[in-house]
Amino acid sequence: MPNIGPTELLLFLAIVLLLFGAGRIARVGGEMGEAVSSFRRGLRKGEEEEANSGAQDSA
Fold first, then answer.
1. CA–CA separation, 20 vs 14, rounded Å?
2. Fewer CB within 10 Å: C terminus or N terminus of the chain?
3. Which residues of 12-42 are buried (b: 16+ CB within 10 A; e: fewer)?
4. What does R_g of the chain's alpha carbons equal in angstroms?
5. Residue 33's pLDDT is what?
6. Type and span of the H or E element at 48
7. What is the predicted pLDDT for the residue at 19?
């Protein structure tokens, strides 16, 4: 498996920037951040519901 160095990464990022533009890349990054936040909120909510149902079962 070939190693990817800093030169290859810069070249890749430059090509992506040319293809999509800075605005679209920023928007996609923001949407990915919102998706991760939503996923974490869902995990926490699921854990809370599970803990509450466990407390009700033992009562």
1. 10
2. N
3. eeeeeeeeeeeeeeeeeeeeeeeeeeeeeee
4. 21
5. 96
6. helix 22-58
7. 92
Per-residue pLDDT of the chain (59 residues; tens, 9 = 90+): 678 899 999 999 999 999 999 899 999 999 999 999 999 999 999 998 888 887 676 55
- The angle, 0 to 180 degrees and rounded to 10, between the axes of the packed helices 6-20 and 22-58 is 100
Structure tokens at 20: 């999509």
Amino acid at 59: A
The whole-angstrom separation of Cα 5 and Cα 11 is 10
Q: Quote the DSSP letter at residue 28.
A: H
pTM of the model: 0.59
